[in-house]
Amino acid sequence: MKKKKGFLFLSSLVTISMLAGCNNKKKTAEIAVVTDVGSLNDGGFNQGTFEGAKAFATENNKTYNYYMPSGQSNATDADRENAMNLAIENGAKIVIAPGFLQASAMRKCAMQHPNVKFVFMDGFLLEDDNHKILNNVTAINYREEEAGFLAGYAVLKEGKYKLGGMFGGGGGNRACNAFAYGYVQGINQAVIDLEKENKEIPGKGKVSKPIAQISFMYGAQFGASPELKNQASSWYMNVKNNEDLEKEVGGTQIIFACGGSMTLSVKSAMDEYEKAEMVGVDVDQSHMSEKIITSATKNLASSVKDTLGLFYGNEWDKKLGGKIFTLGAKENAVGLPTEVYEKDNKKIDPWRFKNFTKEEYKILFKRIRGEGEKAEDNIVTKTVDSKVNCDTEIFWKNVNEKDTPKISIRHIK
Q: Which residues of the chain register pLDDT less than 50?
């Protein structure tokens, strides 16, 4: 998907490393990123957010820095608050913080520092003690269900029929839940479309029902772990191409790894099996392995750059303060990567599909945007209420019966 400048709401309306609380040396920086759980270079949400801040600062001659709360994956609200306060002590005019876990710390800091602006990525609006919305906070969300849908549709059309998904947040994270819900809807829609086209799954032919295994185990803290790797290995075990995997133990052909540094554990397991593959998340992770055949991306860097552009353009009060934005395919804010890029002096093509074509992807993307050739071609993806716990058998049973009857969902608990 080609990125468009200013997709966020322009038209519609640090290279310094420090552990917060561990390094009190003064480092003046007016743009600050306070990371979520995991590491800065997680190849996902933290890194995508920071790269947007870094790019804007570099292009506009602004100072920038990032702050990793003490404890990292085990960081507390106090750790996050200390990181934000350190950023402000070091001259931050605007603090960008990804992840819903930042809410408590951001609320306190925003109330204590009304002249500092806060960008809550994957967050929500915050209120003061009198239940008034804090106007020095803006929130940016994404339609992860659309990104997950695109990934699920693509891998089924590619010929994968025993699929997996490992998600962070223990069933209580809005973004991961939406990715998961969209993923199975996309797989289901691909089966429907193949039936309409009188076609079979590429390389396989007819199969009783494609299988989608869903798990939130070992992902509550969004971190890599031996337990998560072992689980992924047990899923990948016996993976083969174009053979009968329906009744075998293991045999999962591809896993959607969704949740911070969880990607690293799944990748480690994938590397042990020649035929195993992965779907990345949040940002294009194709540079991590040739076997990451696509990534369900959110245009994080562009969102951050657009927000900083409005802030430095003195548009905060008019266009950002006290407002929440939910961005999806219509804003070109989610999708699958299609463009060749260069990293470490090496050209990387993120499009690893052999059967699912870019032309098919473009047509699918338009259908999600509501721009299908016919009105009946358009697709409306469903999302899940933020208060729903998705790590339950009854939730996935209902989803399978009502929304995805063409596939078999197996919730692993």
A: 1-25, 242
